[in-house]
Design the sequence.
């Protein structure tokens, strides 16, 4: 007959011998029992079995732990010496419990104010420390005859390209700055003697990124000199256009309306900076030779005391407006305008300018209200620089010229997954800029009875990332993407049907500056919902009435 545990227990009681076990696990508990009764018999047997397992298996478990520890050390050393490359940048190995996790380095959107300063090598050769404004030679001037008329230069000084539209008596004309269109690269060529040109010439050095230091707020005197020389050549082109146009029977009274890469009129520093540059550039455009040295001299000492009257641009002839104001002005004045909510995403080379506004009609007048807007250095050129900081092959590639991620990945000889990982933080920032503006409507998507009209425009709008970043907006809100309509009053010597969006800022700036002020000035001073700015469709307001507040 097979023995049971009860039989064993009876024998142990009679013999008075208890099992020998480890003192710290079972024996202490047993000794506390002076006599054993049937209620704790099972506990004694259970403790006996447990003690037996501990004594027999403990050495093997410790040995196994030592073996695993050596393996982990070897594995960790391998990862430290040869890090696993998941998405391009180096990764770090972090021990968490008993599992070794490989965590990729977080990709950030780079700041370019210090890392990507434009190349200004060669400008130090021009000795201008002792030069004064008296050394500047002025060209002969012949005043035009005929009826006086206001000529408004709409100046869109862009990071990659500059566009100019001139407005005269209700009609606007695109300045053809290149053989095929009105896109003038924002760059300048300088000879060894300092002469400047918009076109490549033998022996001339090319200088680019003229606007970038202004955007990143670290411009030097050298940067300002290049901008002044560039704008002077643009103003010469404006007067040359006039001399060959059908408007020579008019005597032009010139004004310059410039677009500011800023969120409001309140950026007085930037406005003063632009005004000084334009005044110096207008004066330089009347010099016998447009040179870098003269640009620096005029920047240092632009004054009506030294500059001839015909070359001196008085402050009231220069007006600066946030660029989105010009875009909205041109659109709301267009007969093709639409009602209700609008979202404009202007993708430039340097900035992403996003504005949300609403349009409505009231007794024959068109009103618009700006709900929210932002200007951020998230333009296509910054996107290219961001990619170049994480993908070596993208350093010298204008990546925004590719319309699909697959073609760009193939061109960079990288994987689509790696490109997507690099783009993701940039895409998140762009999408956040869109979403924040739309949320300013403070209307749930289910309560919106009309679509949000969306314009994605600007030179960088063909880059696929900016359209992809709009997809969450399409998913959550009723939307309709349309092109900004080309206005009937805009004239050009080339086809603008497809590319008008690139000239929309310059077109808006070609209006009378009083009218541009009427559209937005009062609203910008306060963002209260009651402040709705009125678009005047006819006539011209009195200056005192316009700026009363």
Sequence:
């Amino acid at each position: 007959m097979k023995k049971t545990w009860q039989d064993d227990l009876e024998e142990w009681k009679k013999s008075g011998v208890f099992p020998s076990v480890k003192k710290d696990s079972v024996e202490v508990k047993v000794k506390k029992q002076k006599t054993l009764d049937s209620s704790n018999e099972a506990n004694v047997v259970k403790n006996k079995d447990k003690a037996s397992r501990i004594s027999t298996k403990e050495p093997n478990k410790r040995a196994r732990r030592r073996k695993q520890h050596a393996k982990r050390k070897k594995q960790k050393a391998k990862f430290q010496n040869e890090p696993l490359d998941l998405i391009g940048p180096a990764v770090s190995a972090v021990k968490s419990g008993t599992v070794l996790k490989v965590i990729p380095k977080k990709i950030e959107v780079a700041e370019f104010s210090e890392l990507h300063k434009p190349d200004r090598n060669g400008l130090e050769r021009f000795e201008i420390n002792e030069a004064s404004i008296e050394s500047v030679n002025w060209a002969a001037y012949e005043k035009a005859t005929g009826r006086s008329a206001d000529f408004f230069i709409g100046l869109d000084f862009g990071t990659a390209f500059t566009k100019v539209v001139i407005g005269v008596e209700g009609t606007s004309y695109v300045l053809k700055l290149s053989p095929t269109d009105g896109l003038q690269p924002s760059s300048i060529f300088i000879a060894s003697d300092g002469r400047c040109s918009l076109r490549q010439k033998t022996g001339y050095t090319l200088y680019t990124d003229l606007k970038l230091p202004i955007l990143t707020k670290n411009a030097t005197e050298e940067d300002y000199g290049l901008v002044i020389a560039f704008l002077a050549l643009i103003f010469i082109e404006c007067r040359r256009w006039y001399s060959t146009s059908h408007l020579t029977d008019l005597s032009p009274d010139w004004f310059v309306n410039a677009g500011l890469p800023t969120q409001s009129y309140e950026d007085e520093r930037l406005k003063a900076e632009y005004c000084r540059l334009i005044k110096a550039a207008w004066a330089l455009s009347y010099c016998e030779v447009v040179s870098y040295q003269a640009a620096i001299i005029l920047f240092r000492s632009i004054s009506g005391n030294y500059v001839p009257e015909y070359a001196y641009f008085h402050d009231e002839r220069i007006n600066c407006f946030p660029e989105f104001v010009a875009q909205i002005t041109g659109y709301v004045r267009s007969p093709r305008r639409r009602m209700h909510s609008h979202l404009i995403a202007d993708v430039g080379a340097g900035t992403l300018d996003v504005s949300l506004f609403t349009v409505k009609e009231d007794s024959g007048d068109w009103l618009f209200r700006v709900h929210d807007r932002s200007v951020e250095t998230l333009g296509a050129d910054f996107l290219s620089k961001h990619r170049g900081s994480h993908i070596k092959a993208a350093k010298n590639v204008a990546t925004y010229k590719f319309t699909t991620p697959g073609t760009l990945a193939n061109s960079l000889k990288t994987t689509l997954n790696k490109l997507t990982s690099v783009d993701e933080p940039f895409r998140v920032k762009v999408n956040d800029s869109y979403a924040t503006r739309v949320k300013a409507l403070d209307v749930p998507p289910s309560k919106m009875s009309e679509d949000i009209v969306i314009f994605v425009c600007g030179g960088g709008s063909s880059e696929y990332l900016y359209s992809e970043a709009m997809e969450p907006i399409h998913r959550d809100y009723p939307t309709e993407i349309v092109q900004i309509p080309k206005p009937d009053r805009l004239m050009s010597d080339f086809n603008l049907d497809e590319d008008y969006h690139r000239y929309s800022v310059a077109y808006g700036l070609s209006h009378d500056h009083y009218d541009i002020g009427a559209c937005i000035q009062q609203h910008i001073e306060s963002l209260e919902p009651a402040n709705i700015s009125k678009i005047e469709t006819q006539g011209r307001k009195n200056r005192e009435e316009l700026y009363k507040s």
About this structure: The first strand starts at residue 91 and ends at 96. Residues 41-81 form the longest helix (41 residues). The CA atoms of residues 213 and 219 lie 5 Å apart. Residues 17-39, 53-58, 78-105, 519-549 have pLDDT under 50 and may be disordered.
